[in-house]
Amino acid sequence: NLTLEERLASYIVEGTKEGLYKDLDEALTKYKPLDIINGPLMAGMDEVGRLFNNNELIVAEVLQSAEAMKAAVAHLEPHMEKADSAAKGKILLATVKGDVHDIGKNLVEIILSNNGYEIINLGIKVPPETLIEAFRKEKPDAIGLSGLLVKSAQQMVVTAQDLRNAGIDVPILVGGAALTRNFTRNRIAREYEGLVLYAKDAMNGLELANQLTN
Ligand code: B1M
Q1: Are the C-beta atoms of 36 and 76 separated by less than 8 Å?
Q2: Is the pLDDT of residue 209 over 80?
Q3: Distance between CA atoms of 119 and 91, rounded to whole angstroms?
Q4: How remote is the CA of residue 167 from the centroid of ligand 1, in Å?
Q5: Which pTM was predicted?
Q6: For residues 188 and 160, is the Cβ–Cβ distance under 8 A?
Q7: Alpha helix locations (H) across the chain?
Q8: 85, pLDDT greater than 70
Q9: Please, are residues 141 and 194 in contact by the beta-carbon 8 Å criterion?
Q10: Tens digit of pLDDT for each residue in 153-172?
Q11: Which residues line ligand 1 (CB under 6 A)?
Q12: Which of 60, 105, 191, 194 is deepest in the core (most CB within 10 A)?
């Protein structure tokens, strides 16, 4: 007999939506939507990562887990707190070139847009050229880059160089599992003209964005 929290994690690990929404609704009577995501759902995703690392899951199964996570986040989204939307600024958001992971990035989009930001989400595997083109068209106040692979951290260094060479100097917000504050400061920020800030999670991303726009 699993507890509610264990069941929520297990939907992600098993990659199933059978019973998911009912348990999410029950969880919503006790917890805030973001606490459900950051707690049991992320615990499930961490377990998926661990099993995948040990070759106990194949990519197709991890994709099922990602589908369950996306369905859960979509179900919780309408219940999230929304600030009165006085537009705080426009942010271009992308997962860097070579990387398909987008659950974290899309969570950042939800949280920022619920809190008064206009988000232009360029999607996944976004090369610097596309970012530069979108920057010129949209004139955002900041650029958000996400990437989970070790090689994506390196790709952020290249992206920062390309943006700088294009004359762009708005603040950049970076996040994702393979990144650290030190890597951001010592490797990415050095290649860029403007500020580069590391967000450890989506809420921290919002805090940093708020600091920039205040
Ligand atoms: Co892949 N994957 N994956 N994967 N995957 C990881 C990242 C990995 C750590 C798993 C592992 O081996 N343990 C590993 C990376 C190894 C490495 O480089 N060190 C890995 C690998 C190897 C791969 C493939 C290469 C596998 C293969 O094909 N052989 C392949 C890569 C393809 C590619 O990108 N070119 C691949 C593919 C996939 C799927 C497609 C199956 C799927 C992604 C589906 C999707 O996103 N649509 C997937 C998944 C689901 C994972 C794990 C299990 C979970 C990632 C996730 O969604 N977490 C992951 C293991 C893990 O992280 N534990 C893994 C939940 C999400 C909410 O968290 O994205 O970290 P996260 O976001 C966090 C913070 O990082 C932060 O905020 C969020 C929390 O609030 N954040 C930001 C993120 N971006 C931000 C931006 C910001 C601010 C904060 O501002 C702009």
Answers
A1: yes
A2: yes
A3: 5
A4: 30
A5: 0.96
A6: yes
A7: 4-14, 20-28, 33-36, 42-53, 59-76, 103-114, 128-138, 150-165, 181-183, 202-213
A8: no
A9: no
A10: 999 999 999 999 999 999 99
A11: 45-46, 48-49, 52-53, 59, 62-63, 65-66, 98-105, 107-108, 144-146, 148-150, 173, 175-178, 199, 201-202, 205
A12: 105
Is the predicted pLDDT of residue 58 greater than 70, yes or no? yes
| Rounded Cα gap, residues 155 and 180, in angstroms | 14
Q: How far is the CA of 133 from the centre of ligand 1 (A)?
A: 26
Partners of 120 in beta bridges: 92
User: Which atom of ligand 1 is closest in space to residue 178's alpha carbon?
Assistant: 19
Is 79 a residue of the active site?
Answer: no
Instruction: Assess contact for 62 and 52: CB atoms under 8 A.
Output: yes
- Tell me if 154 sits within 8 A of 176, measured CB to CB: no
ipTM higher than threshold 0.85: yes
R_g over Cα of the chain: 18
Q: Percent of the chain having pLDDT more than 90? A: 94
Mean pLDDT in residue range 97-103 = 98
Determine the distance from the C-alpha atom of residue 32 to the mean position of all C-alpha atoms in its chain, rounded to a whole number. Answer: 19
pLDDT in the model for residue 82: 86
